[in-house]
Write a structure and sequence with these properties.
CATH architecture of one domain: 4-Layer Sandwich
Largest sheet: 6 strands, antiparallel
Helix content: 25-40%
Radius of gyration: 17 Å
Structural class: alpha+beta
CATH superfamily of one domain: PPM-type phosphatase domain
CATH class of one domain: Alpha Beta
Number of strands: 8
Number of helices: 5
Order of helices and strands: EHEHHEEEEEHHE
Strand content: 15-25%
Length: about 190
């Protein structure tokens, strides 16, 4: 991606019909100068909290605050590794906050971060908040859901075809916060077209 490329973005969240509070959080950090863009790039994050009451809300808010903080603070030019470190730092923060209060224990959130850098688009991902690329007449899913349903299908397609996963399709196998360490998928860089 080049600094000169036009960038438009928007955020919309829907609480849905079953919840009393919105556990979604999002953040956009668009570079103000070409120097800032060349150093790190633009960053966009979505997080969907889990844990009931205000706990999921807190976890997702912590994620969208911690990832950009680390993203712009960490030295180095490798966007993939920097994004991995930024999401790891968010996991540590959420885990520590959850450990300090019995009511917050095991709180968590999904996290999908998209960095638009001079080398291309890089995605850091934990959970089932998806990232898609829409290009011309095609939509491609760029992230793999960390859910019981998707993990079973990926590991054993024959077994998954015979198991009724409809009751378990929303079980998340990875998220930020519940554990002191988390495996983070990092994809890209993908070419960014005008």
């Amino acid at each position: 991606m080049r600094w000169e490329q036009k960038l438009q973005h928007a955020t919309l969240s829907d609480i849905g019909l079953r919840r009393q509070n919105n556990e979604d959080s999002a953040a956009s950090h668009v570079c103000a100068t070409s120097t800032e863009f060349d150093r790190r790039g633009h960053l966009f994050i979505v997080a969907d909290g889990m844990g009931g009451h205000a706990v999921g809300e807190l976890a997702s808010q912590l994620a969208v605050e911690a990832v950009p903080h680390s993203w712009y603070k960490v030295a180095g030019n490798d966007a993939r590794e920097t994004l991995r470190l930024a999401i790891t730092a968010a996991n540590k923060l959420i885990f520590e906050r959850g450990s300090q209060n019995r009511d917050f224990l095991r709180m968590g959130t999904t996290c999908t971060a998209l960095a638009l850098t001079p080398q291309g688009a890089v995605i850091g991902h934990v959970g089932d908040s998806r990232c898609y690329r829409i290009r011309r007449d095609r939509i491609d899913q760029l992230t793999f859901d960390h859910s019981l349903q998707w993990e079973m299908q990926r590991q054993n397609r024959k077994l998954a075809a015979h198991v009724d996963l409809s009751e378990h399709r929303n079980i998340i196998t990875r998220s930020l916060g519940p554990e002191p360490a988390v495996e983070i998928d990092v994809e890209g860089p993908f070419l960014v077209l005008p």
